[in-house]
Design brief:
It is built from 11 helices and 10 strands. By secondary structure, the protein is an alpha/beta fold. Strands 1, 2, 3, 4, 7 and 8 form a 6-stranded parallel β-sheet that branches. A two-stranded antiparallel ribbon has the order 5-6. It has a two-stranded parallel sheet with strand order 9-10. β3, α4 and β4 form a beta-alpha-beta unit. It starts with 9 loop residues before the first helix and ends with a helix.
Length: 278
Amino acid sequence: MFFTTDSMQPAELGRALEERGFESLWVPEHTHIPSSRKTPYPAGGPLIRPYYDIMDPFLALNAAATVTTHLKIGTGIALVTQRDPIVTAKIVSTIDQLSAGRFLFGVGNGWNQDEIENHGTDFASRHKLARERIEAMKAIWTQEEPEYHGEFVNFDKMKQWPKPYQRPHPPVIVGGAFPYAAKRAIRYGDGWIPHADRLEKDGVGLLISKFRQMAVEAGRNPASLPITVFRVPEEIDRLRFCEEAGIDRIVFSLPAQGRDALMPIIDRWAELKHRMGR
């Protein structure tokens, strides 16, 4: 959900989702959208307005967490290439504590070259930068006096609290397409987030099987890398296929609109969930 000043607000939506038994709420991130366009919009055509109207994901998610007790909250995805790792580590720990361990840290490296470069990040080296920032955050979350020394991230021993509520830390779920993002998920993630439309281009079952085989070859237990698929269509057959393929979580998209537009969509998905026995 792209939360904007004109859309249904996070607290209200969070309550509606929890009342209907949904598992989680996910919020994407864009700090801004440059007026220039070095990178085409992946979905094609002009970039839709919610990309630059969107609220900060952590603040929106915390608002939803405050009025719920079971609903998980996730960044879908946080752009770590645009975030200081020391500051972000504290934000993640804080929201995980305030939500009593309900935070899911979806991360990604970004597609918008102009946006990324405005943050002082070289577009070509963003993947290594993101890995170092995530490794550094893990050190901060899990060590009494963490330090990290890499090419892009470098700090000596320090102290930072609070530590996350979840141990050792909230799951780091890596977003992106097969095979490169899948490899990153296996290297330093606790799960993988592909988009349904991209999976279907090469066959969902085939790519899921390849991902799990890659995990085994890298010495990872595939069970430790749950798969979350974004943008699944509102079709019972597709949902059943995802279940049969062993996908662990499916996430549907809501338009950045008000309550009157969203509640019928949410209720249709609640009925689909019921038909799936969930």
